[in-house]
Design brief:
The structure holds 2 protein chains of 2 kinds. By secondary structure, chain A is an alpha/beta fold. Chain A has a single domain, classed as 2-enoyl-CoA Hydratase, Chain A, domain 1. The termini of chain A are far apart. The mean pLDDT of chain A is 94. In chain A, strands 1, 2, 3, 4, 5, 6 and 7 form a 7-stranded mixed β-sheet that branches. Chain B is an alpha/beta fold. Chain B has a single domain, classed as Alpha-Beta Complex (2-enoyl-CoA Hydratase, Chain A, domain 1). In chain B, 38% of the residues lie in helices and 13% in strands. Chain B contains 12 helices and 7 strands. Chain B has a 7-stranded mixed β-sheet with strand order 1-2-3-4-5-6-7. In chain B, helix 4 runs parallel beside helix 5. The C terminus of chain B is likely disordered. Chains A and B meet through helix 2, helix 3, helix 4, helix 5 and helix 6 of A and helix 4, helix 5, helix 6, helix 7 and helix 11 of B.
């Protein structure tokens, strides 16, 4: 499965921006491009593997120090350039997500990857709070700290309805080891307990997703697929502009009201006792 | 010779680390001003743990205390490291986010309400996996919504430390306070050893762990603001200072270009020496009181 990481992200970045290069070449792991989306220009961001990265622990498509600060760099630039513009004219940001995880390396820990990841999620959230529609398109994997760094601060999250899409806190083998189960038991449990599941259709039950998109083959976008996904992205941008700039929409869908009942009750109780 | 002179100072010191999460949070407030919100008697526990044969706890390992610090409104949210490793689940995450949001609402309305996050956590609770990860994203968002209006202070005392997704919440805080016993990082040593091998990180090497993740290092390299002794009085005084501090015009996690350049300047052909990193990064950038 791991050899597919980044291929889908790159394919969709290329399809939606007609570009396949990192903007500066440095690092080669962050693709950033401004491209037409509907009748405006959006900032598209994607993290891809680079087998030649000078950081060994990001070579398979993990998000590390350079990736986090480079994402933040592009986001901060767009926020600054659009600062004086009315909300309706602030450029949308589209994060194309296909990341294995955060980087698990000593260099990264020493230089404070926790802080790099924080700076990137700060930049994404700041863009959202400033009024930029921030949309995540999960085109492949979205794991753990990788997703927190790149994409999870979005106003709206879209994902392909495909067995290759995985959104999760930890990959199966590690999660099984830590919770002292076999991988088979873990998969079984996922069918009963939605937040444990590795299936994107179960993820959709959590109420965090704006929309599941159907495409024929996520790795090889067809012209019709690209058009359909563009339409969905435009719809999400419009919906984000109409909605709140915080993440409250993640608690408001019918699915959230069902699955996140306990969390919603806690919020109400805390407000009552405040 | 009076007796006080021959008894070393540390004998009379009251350890902060030895307190549980609830007592830690309580100890920060002015006497008689605090109350616990959604406490254990409200019995708001995880709906997901019992389904997996794990005993839940009536407070879900998250304690919310509201009161006054130095006469100013404040809320402390503590993760109890002794329950499920301080992990973030749906309920504990919702408590934290809701408390931050209510503090932001009051602060925006002119009643500045500081938040103190006492983080002893390994990160996302894997039994609640995706709801834990979503909670972390929401906590980060809520910290950022409060930060322009009131200080958000992360306090990591140890000995669990602050790892996983919650380390990002520390990273976006206005200030980070640590003890020498505390650790702060995205991935714990065991996880790195498991994922990348013992040559990458030997998780039995305690000296290496503290040299990289320890409070002294994080403060010295400028990624945390204050190093405090394990003394409840000292911790309280340090937190009071930050609660009363003026809001900063710019926060550490907004200083992207400085850090991007620093990362670009790193020699990655071998492991990075924590001591020399301290010297290189020392002190020009943090938002903390000095």
């Amino acid at each position: 499965m791991s050899e597919h990481i980044g291929l889908r992200g790159r394919a969709w970045f290329k399809a939606l921006t007609e570009n396949n290069q990192s903007s500066s070449g440095n690092p080669g792991t962050v693709l950033a491009s401004e491209a037409q989306i509907g009748d405006e220009i959006g900032l598209f961001l994607c993290v891809v593997p680079d087998p030649a990265s000078r950081f060994p622990c990001v070579r398979d498509g993990q998000v590390g120090l350079e990736e986090a600060f480079t994402l933040a760099h592009h986001l901060r630039r767009v926020i600054a350039e659009d600062r004086q513009k009315p909300k309706a004219q602030k450029r949308p940001v589209i994060a194309i997500v296909d990341v294995k995880s955060q980087a698990y390396g000593r260099r990264e820990e020493t230089a404070g990857i926790f802080f790099a990841a924080a700076a990137s999620s700060d930049a994404y959230a700041s863009a959202r709070i400033a009024g930029h529609p921030v949309i995540s398109l999960v085109a492949g994997q979205a794991f753990s700290g990788g997703f927190l760094t790149h994409g999870y601060q979005a106003n709206r999250i879209l994902a392909f309805d495909d067995s290759g899409i995985v959104i999760h806190a930890m990959h199966k083998e590690a999660a099984a080891r830590i919770t002292r189960r076999s991988v088979a038991e873990l998969e079984e449990l996922g069918h009963e307990i939605a937040p444990m599941s590795y299936d994107v259709r179960d993820y959709a039950k959590l109420g965090l997703l704006y929309k599941l998109l159907h495409v024929s083959d996520p790795q090889h976008p067809t012209t019709a697929d690209i058009e359909a996904v563009r339409r969905d992205l435009i719809g999400a941008i419009q919906d984000a502009r109409r909605g709140a700039a915080d993440l409250s929409n993640r608690l408001q869908s019918d699915a959230a009201k069902q699955t996140r009942k306990a969390g919603i009750a806690v919020r109400a109780a805390l407000e009552a006792q405040w | 010779m009076s007796q006080t002179n021959i008894i070393p100072e540390f004998v009379s010191r009251r350890s902060f680390i030895e307190l549980d999460g609830r007592r830690r949070a309580q100890s920060l407030f002015d006497e008689g001003t605090w109350k616990e919100l959604v406490g254990p008697f409200d019995r708001m526990e995880s709906p997901w743990l019992p389904l997996q044969g794990v005993a839940p706890q009536f407070d879900d390992g998250c304690i919310v205390i509201k009161g006054k610090i130095g006469g100013m409104p404040a809320v402390a949210i503590a993760l109890e490291g002794a329950f499920q490793g301080g992990s973030i689940g749906e309920v504990s995450g919702a408590k934290m986010t809701a408390a931050l949001d209510l503090a932001a609402k009051d602060s925006e309305a002119g009643k500045r309400t500081a938040a103190i996050l006492l983080l002893e956590t390994g990160g996302v609770r894997l039994q609640e996996a995706n709801l834990g990860l979503a909670a972390v994203a929401e906590v980060i968002s809520s910290v950022l919504a409060l930060r322009p209006y009131a200080p958000v202070i992360t306090l990591i005392a140890g000995t669990v430390g602050c790892f996983g997704g919650m380390s990002l919440a520390a990273g976006v805080s206005s200030y980070v306070v640590m003890t020498r016993e505390a650790r702060l990082g995205l991935n714990g040593p065991e996880v790195i050893e498991q994922e990348s091998g013992i040559n990458e990180f030997d998780s039995s090497d305690r000296a290496l762990i503290w040299a990289i993740h320890g409070g002294e290092q994080r403060v010295a390299m400028g990624l945390a603001d204050a190093l405090v002794e394990d003394d409840a009085k000292n911790v309280k005084a340090t937190i009071l200072g930050y609660v009363q501090a003026d809001l900063r015009p710019v926060y550490r996690s907004q200083q992207v270009e400085i850090y991007r350049d620093r990362i670009a300047a790193l020699d990655t052909s071998e492991q990075i020496d924590p001591k020399s990193l301290r010297q290189k990064w020392n002190n020009e950038t943090t938002g903390g009181l000095r």
